Amino acid sequence: MNIQKKDIKEIVKEKYSQIATQSKKENETSCCGAGGCCEIDYTIFSENYEKLDGYNPDADLGLGCGIPTQFARIKKGDTVLDLGSGAGNDCFVARALSGESGKVIGIDFSDTMLEKARENVKKLGFTNVEFIKGDIEEMPVPSGTIDVVVSNCVLNLVPDKKKAYDGIFRALKPGGHFSISDVVLQGKLPKGLKDDAVMYSGCVAGAIQKDEYLEIISQSGFRNIEINKEKEIELPDELLRNYLTEAEISEFKNNKTGIFSITVTAEK
Q1: What is the signed CA dihedral for 177, 232, 110, 113, rounded to 10 degrees?
Q2: At what angle do helices 5-20 and 191-199 cross, to 10 degrees?
Q3: CATH: 3.40.50.150, 2.40.50.100, 3.40.30.10, 3.40.50.720. Which one for 5-267?
């Protein structure tokens, strides 16, 4: 299957625009929020935000694979950038940490998601949270203006991760840092599973090997790279049977191949 980078972006945009119109419950009970690609509960990826300051249920579509703000060391007055901000879930948690004197900017390339996020911020009455349209590979943010970058299960969907991390480095102030939750691989995924995931623009679409992911961060100039949290994503047999034989499932589980959610931090 030969899927071009441009095609992946269009698939992602289409699916996440669809997700924006669904409830959290609908998203959690369909594969990675993208209606009906498999009978799987997306909570195997997502984390529970409900007890966090700033949590807003209208902004929580159940799509994350971590809580990047948990390790982001956001201080009062910080300017925070959220890449792939969706309906605003991580932005509103970040705003609770940066306070009235801080500023939070969310970037997304789905008009439907942006509309939902702007409706949410209007209802909350926040004047220091804004959502702008942009591509993470070409983020419309002035250089050296951001204290902290966060992102939740989005960069795995970006075809050119090096370009994305170069952009993060450029946007951060000297001494700034990021905290990003994402999906990575260890070992080679069976082709059928990987190819179909790309088509459905979720779960493991675009995910790369963990070592390669960390090397890209290093190549972009970051230091003090640290994985703060790592969780193996256990795909249920009923999902794997859509792609693999019983023998292939057994091999997949026994050869140390895995899909992991990680939350990684690094400094400029």
Answers
A1: -90
A2: 60
A3: 3.40.50.150
Whole-prediction pTM: 0.84
- Sheet with 223-233, strands from edge to edge, namely 129-133, 103-108, 79-83, 146-152, 172-186, 258-267, 223-233
Find all residues with CB under 8 Å of 7, minimum gap 6, and list them.
none
Residues 137, 12: contact at Cβ < 8 Å? Answer: no
Amino acid 91: pLDDT: 98
d(CA 101, CA 98): 7
CA angle 241, 184, 80 (to 5 degrees): 130
CB 209 within 8 A of CB 184: yes
DSSP state of 16: H
Q: Determine the pLDDT at residue 176.
A: 98
Query: How far apart are the C-alpha atoms of 191 and 254, rounded to whole Å?
Result: 17
Please give the structure tokens belonging to residue 19: 């997700």
- What does the pLDDT look like over 27-83, one tens digit per residue? 444 444 434 444 444 455 668 899 999 999 989 887 788 999 999 999 999 999 999
Domain spans, the chain? 5-267
CB atoms within 10 A of CB 169: 18
* Residues whose CB is less than 8 angstroms from the CB of residue 256 and which lie 6 or more positions away in sequence, other chains included: 186, 187
